[in-house]
């Protein structure tokens, strides 16, 4: 009976962790899908393929290492497909984050970077980290009106802070204001406030204020793109050393897209569209999209890569084989380094570490 009781406790604990993880993000509502008129292409091919694939360009689309995904996880992810089954996806990676993952790290929870209630962030470093290290700011997703940097009884997105800090980088994991109470340009304002705080304070935590990277996931990638574009459109200096966009939305067109944040008046979209600014920036960008992402994200990836290529701007695009919209970042910090490996390489190269 004791063994049975322990099993029940273990299952209950995993269930709680999975449910907490699922509160982090919600799938995009159907009405946010905006289709591109451009043909879509498979990496390495000049032949148009079915919608929902990715484009080839002079900025070649790299393919992730599919073999990095454990076989049993890869099988389940294929079965889940693009359905955004958050409980099932979280259950695949939760067992890889057991105990106190921050045992050998210094965690500073909920530091304030602004006046709003959600203007808080975690700063995490390895206890034996050398001084003057690059800083990586993770910006979570959640449809502009949800998501969190962390949640009780969940590994997500503490896993991002854990992995970043484990690479002897300074991890900064932020919350930001929600839509619809806070609409465009609140994301730009919040990210600008984060960078200002880091410039003034991060040296105290061992970080280099001159080597800052943003890593945005889904909505977070859109906020990061807007921040970079805003500075470029205004002719302001580039404050960061690079940015990673993971499955975000970047282009506003003639149909409402994420109206809870950008509004449903498309006549305002030209001023709110990130693309005109992104094609002006010299900030190094790595952009990724997942094989089992929804069509919206693949189409936005295509638009971004094509626009940067047409503007003769470099971008490092990557197609994540075998991953979904949620698994790509749930995997970070686990044995599956199909995304984190290339991201680390990008950060080390752009920060002058290699």
Topology:
Blueprint: H1 2-22, E1 62-63, H2 71-80, H3 86-93, E2 105-112, E3 120-126, E4 133-139, H4 158-166, E5 170-174, H5 186-201, E6 207-217, H6 219-233, E7 242-246, H7 259-262, H8 269-272, H9 275-278, E8 285-292, H10 295-310, E9 316-324, H11 327-330, H12 340-350
Helix pairs in contact: 1-3, 2-3, 5-6
Care to count the β-strands?
A: 9
* Cα-atom radius of gyration: 19 Å
* Spans of at least 5 consecutive residues with low confidence: 1-23, 26-51
Total of DSSP H or I helical runs spanning 4+ residues? 12
Please, what is the average pLDDT? 88
Order of helices and strands: HEHHEEEHEHEHEHHHEHEHH
* Percent helix: 25-40%
From the spread of the alpha carbons, the general shape counts as globular
User: What structural class should be given to the helix and strand makeup?
Assistant: alpha/beta
How would a textbook summarize the main sheet? 9 strands, mixed
The fraction of residues assigned to DSSP E strands is 15-25%
Widest sheet, order of strands: 1-9-8-7-6-4-5-3-2
Please report the distance between the alpha carbons of the first and last residues: 56 Å
Q: What does this protein look like?
A:
The protein is α/β, with parallel strands linked by helices and 354 residues long. The chain has 12 helices and 9 strands. It has helices spanning 2-22, 71-80, 86-93, 158-166, 186-201, 219-233, 259-262, 269-272, 275-278, 295-310, 327-330, 340-350, and strands spanning 62-63, 105-112, 120-126, 133-139, 170-174, 207-217, 242-246, 285-292, 316-324. It has a 9-stranded mixed β-sheet with strand order 1-9-8-7-6-4-5-3-2, with helices on both faces. Strand 4, helix 4 and strand 5 form a beta-alpha-beta unit. Helix 1 (2-22) packs across helix 3 (86-93), helix 2 (71-80) runs antiparallel to helix 3 and helix 5 crosses helix 6 (219-233). The longest helix is centred in the N-terminal third of the chain and has 21 residues, at 2-22.
């Amino acid at each position: 009976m004791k063994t049975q009781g322990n099993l029940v406790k273990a299952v209950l604990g995993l269930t709680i962790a999975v449910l907490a993880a699922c509160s982090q993000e919600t799938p995009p509502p159907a009405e946010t899908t905006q289709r591109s008129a451009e043909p879509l292409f498979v990496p390495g091919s000049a032949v148009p393929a079915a919608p929902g694939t990715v484009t080839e360009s002079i900025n070649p689309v790299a393919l992730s290492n599919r073999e990095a995904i454990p076989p049993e996880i890869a099988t389940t992810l294929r079965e889940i497909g693009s359905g955004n089954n958050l409980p099932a996806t979280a259950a695949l990676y939760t067992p890889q984050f057991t105990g106190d993952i921050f045992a050998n790290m210094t965690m500073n929870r909920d530091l304030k970077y602004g006046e709003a209630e959600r203007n808080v962030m975690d700063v995490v470093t390895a206890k034996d980290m050398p001084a003057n290290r690059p800083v990586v700011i993770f910006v979570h997703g959640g449809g502009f009106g949800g998501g969190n940097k962390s949640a009780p009884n969940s590994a997500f997105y503490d896993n991002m802070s854990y992995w970043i800090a484990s690479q002897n980088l300074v991890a900064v994991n932020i919350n930001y204001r929600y839509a619809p109470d806070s609409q465009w340009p609140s994301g730009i304002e919040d990210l600008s406030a984060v960078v200002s705080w880091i410039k003034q304070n991060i040296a105290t935590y061992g970080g280099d204020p001159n080597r800052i990277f943003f890593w945005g996931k889904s909505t977070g990638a859109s906020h990061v793109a807007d921040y970079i574009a805003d500075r470029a459109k205004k002719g302001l200096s580039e404050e960061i050393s690079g940015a990673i966009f993971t499955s975000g939305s970047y282009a506003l067109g003639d149909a409402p897209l994420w109206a809870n944040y950008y509004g449903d008046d498309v006549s305002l979209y030209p001023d709110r569209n990130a693309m005109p600014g992104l094609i002006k920036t010299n900030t190094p960008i790595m952009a990724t999209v997942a094989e089992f992402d929804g069509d919206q994200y693949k189409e936005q990836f295509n638009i971004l890569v094509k626009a940067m290529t047409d503007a003769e701007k470099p971008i490092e695009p990557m197609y994540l084989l075998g991953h979904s919209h949620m698994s790509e970042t749930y995997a970070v910090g686990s044995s599956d380094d199909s995304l984190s490996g290339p991201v680390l390489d990008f950060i080390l190269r752009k920060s002058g570490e290699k």
